Amino acid sequence: MKEARLLVNVVVYLRQGHQEYIELCSHERGPWITMKGKLNAAELCIVQGLDYATVPGSGESCCKFTLKFINPSSDVFGKSFKLTLPELVNFPDFLVEKTRFDASVAQSWTPGNKCLVWWRDEGEEGGDWWEGKIVFSRPKSNDFPDSPWERHIVKYKRDPTDDHSHSPWELHCPDDNWEHPHIDFEIRKKLLSYFSKVEHSSRRNQDCYGIQKLQQVSQKSDFLNRFPVPLSPEIIQSRLEHNYYRNFEAVKHDIQVMISNALAYFSKNADACMKINRLADFFRRKLQLLV
C-alpha cells in the first residue's frame, strides 16, 4: 500500500481533508473531537507506528497509523492519535510527506500557472498525467481560511468544461525536477543482495531459509486471504527494485510483517518454523549493519 511508505516519516496532516474523508466514508472520530486544543489547518506530525489490518465488512487492506503532533507552537503539541486509512484512490491525500508539502507550498501557485496532475487508473497501478491551468485560487471553506486543502481550481486541456479542485501537493510544474524521497541507493543495493543471498542458499541447501516454501504458499488463496498484507520475498524485492520505499524503516517493517505472517501460517509445521526463524535471524543481523 502506498500509505505504508510513510512509516517513521515526518508528515503534514490536513485537518480539513481528514474531516471531509470522515464525513464521506469513515466512522472514526477526528482529533479535533477527541482532543482539547485547537488544531491548525496543517499540523506537523511524526508517524510513530503502523499496522496492517482489514477493513471490516469489505476485506480490503488498510493501514492503522499512530501519529504524534510535533509542532511546539501547536495547542496539541506532544499528543497522539490513531488514524485508519485504506488505499486512497478517489480521495486526495491529507497525510503528505513534509518534503513534498514544503516543495509544493514554496511553488506559490497562482492563477494562470500551467500544471500537471497525476490521475491514477482505478484498480490499477498505472495512470496518466493531465495538463491544465489554474484558473483561480481561494479557500475551499470559510471555516478553514488558512488551509491549502483543495484551494486551487484547475481546468484541464482535455476536459475544458469542468473545474477541478486541487491541493498544492497534487500539482506538478511541467519543468519540475523534484525527486520523490527514497532510500539510499547503496542501502537498496545491499538489501537486494541480501534477498539474492538467501535465495541462492535456499536453492543449494534444501531451502534452509524457507524462502522457496514461502514463495509457494504466497500464491495460495488461504495465505492471501488470511493476512491484510500477504507479503512475500518476491513482493519486497520488487518494491526495492522499483524504489517503492521512502526510507529504510519502511523496508524493515515489511520484512518483519513477512516473517510474522510466515510464522503464523506455518505455526503447526516445526521444520518450516525453524527455517523461517533462521531467515528472521539472518535479516536481523544484516539489518543491524545498515542502521
Report the end-to-end length measured between terminal Cα atoms.
Answer: 24 Å
Alpha plus pi helix count: 9
Strand order of the largest sheet: 4-3-2-1-5
Mean pLDDT across residues: 87
Q: Can you give the helix content as a percent range?
A: 25-40%
The low-confidence parts are none
- Approximately how much beta-strand content do the residues carry? 15-25%
What structural class do the secondary elements suggest? alpha+beta
SSE blueprint and pairings:
Elements: E1 10-14, H1 15-25, H2 31-34, E2 42-54, E3 61-69, E4 80-86, E5 95-97, H3 98-106, E6 114-120, E7 127-137, E8 152-156, E9 159-166, H4 185-204, H5 211-217, H6 221-226, H7 233-241, H8 248-265, H9 270-288
Antiparallel strand pairs: 1-2, 1-5, 2-3, 3-4, 6-7, 7-8, 8-9
Could you explain the architecture of this structure?
With 291 residues, this protein is an alpha+beta fold. It has 9 helices and 9 strands. A 5-stranded antiparallel β-sheet has the order 4-3-2-1-5. A 4-stranded antiparallel β-sheet has the order 6-7-8-9, with no helix packed on it. Helix 4 packs antiparallel against helix 7. The model has no long low-confidence stretch (mean pLDDT 87).
